Amino acid sequence: MPKTSGPPAWLKDGFGIVLLLGFILLFFNMANTADDGIFTLPSEWLVVNTIFLGILLEAIPFLLLGVFVSALIQVFVSEDALNRYLPKNAYAALFPAAVLGAIFPICECAIIPVVRRLIKKGMPLHVGVVFLVGAPILNPVVAGSTYFAFRDDLTVFYLRFGLAFGLAILIGGIMYLIFKNRDQLKWRSEELLGKESIDIKQGPPQKQHRLKQTFYHASDEFFLMGKYLIAGALIAAMFQTFLDREFLASLGANDWASTAVMMAFAYVLSLCSEADAFVAASFGNLFNEGSLAAFLLYGPMLDLKNTIMLFAFFKARFVLYFMVIVTIAVFSAIMGVQLFLL
């Protein structure tokens, strides 16, 4: 039987854009419509609207910058060029891999497919892990957004990037001890038979089409990540409005509980690393610096949407080890910082 084709891609994209714009316009005009008597809203939802818009308006410029630079890298930078700068020694490659991760602004929404491509082209598994956990945090766009969000007190800024650099190297080293360079990718049957994908057969993009492809990738990535940002900002605003402040304050007073709670928030909210600092800053009056740093470390390394992608691209055993190691490493590092430094 012939396969029935679904709706065209432009129709789905257009419908999504209309819904997105309608959602944003609704929140922008919620207070006006309530004042005009069009419909009545409880006062708590007006507070949600104010907090939501504040988070969103601060984060969108950095999100736009991040997706555009990420698209430039995807189109113009060859994966093979990265491999030439990495030492052959397994442990010696960890530090320069973390440094390279600090150069390229690839957020966690795009890092898993990129790392998979790098590994397929010959990058060692443990170096890919360093990129996987380090690049979404260490890149300059995230540094700029984090600095702007915490510009009044840079403690969280220094904690985020100092710990991210060290943890990326540590987690990469641990994964090397466990898996060495054994293949942990999931391969399609076409790949196992030695057939190249359609994209590879087509060859590198022509120079005259590269700018067009850059804008295409940037717009595609913006709408992909934008929905997670909007959902995260809305959930954060609802948490701050409806959760019992005394309960949150009691959690924030306990280093162990507050760190675990903020790591759980980071996993569930699944925010883009180029915008998560603004959501974290909105919790600044309820949680301490260590807990906020845990939120900003754990989310880009491991969240709900990335977990799904990891299981799609990597073997289940590798993903489970990765999740456990990242969780223990981040929690232990934050506990150590809070015990000895804060």
Automatic annotation (TrEMBL):
<feature type="transmembrane region" description="Helical">
    <location>
        <begin position="15"/>
        <end position="34"/>
    </location>
</feature>
<keyword id="KW-1133">Transmembrane helix</keyword>
<feature type="transmembrane region" description="Helical">
    <location>
        <begin position="127"/>
        <end position="150"/>
    </location>
</feature>
<feature type="transmembrane region" description="Helical">
    <location>
        <begin position="46"/>
        <end position="73"/>
    </location>
</feature>
<comment type="similarity">
    <text>Belongs to the UPF0718 family.</text>
</comment>
<dbReference type="GO" id="GO:0005886">
    <property type="term" value="C:plasma membrane"/>
</dbReference>
<feature type="transmembrane region" description="Helical">
    <location>
        <begin position="318"/>
        <end position="341"/>
    </location>
</feature>
<feature type="transmembrane region" description="Helical">
    <location>
        <begin position="93"/>
        <end position="115"/>
    </location>
</feature>
<keyword id="KW-0812">Transmembrane</keyword>
<dbReference type="InterPro" id="IPR005524">
    <property type="entry name" value="DUF318"/>
</dbReference>
<keyword id="KW-0472">Membrane</keyword>
<dbReference type="Pfam" id="PF03773">
    <property type="entry name" value="ArsP_1"/>
</dbReference>
<keyword id="KW-1003">Cell membrane</keyword>
<feature type="transmembrane region" description="Helical">
    <location>
        <begin position="156"/>
        <end position="179"/>
    </location>
</feature>
<feature type="transmembrane region" description="Helical">
    <location>
        <begin position="277"/>
        <end position="298"/>
    </location>
</feature>
<protein>
    <recommendedName>
        <fullName>Permease</fullName>
    </recommendedName>
</protein>
<feature type="transmembrane region" description="Helical">
    <location>
        <begin position="222"/>
        <end position="242"/>
    </location>
</feature>
<dbReference type="InterPro" id="IPR052923">
    <property type="entry name" value="UPF0718"/>
</dbReference>
